[in-house]
Amino acid sequence: MHDSMTLTLNGETRTFPAPLSVAGLLGVLELDRRKVAVERNEEIVPRSAYGETLLAGGDSLEIVHFIGGG
To answer: How far is CA 63 from the centre of its chain?
Structure first.
């Protein structure tokens, strides 16, 4: 049985399953980790650390999507 935690995601309070890594969060949100940048508690999370960066209840995240165009 999984617990849950509350995170602030782009200014919106949401509940997610716990435990959860940044990579796991991106999976839940169905976002391509190659096309986003993630800031956790006002610090950029390196893409190479997404899998090992565990989130905690109360964390504040900003996720920015890269959109190409011409």
So the answer is: 7
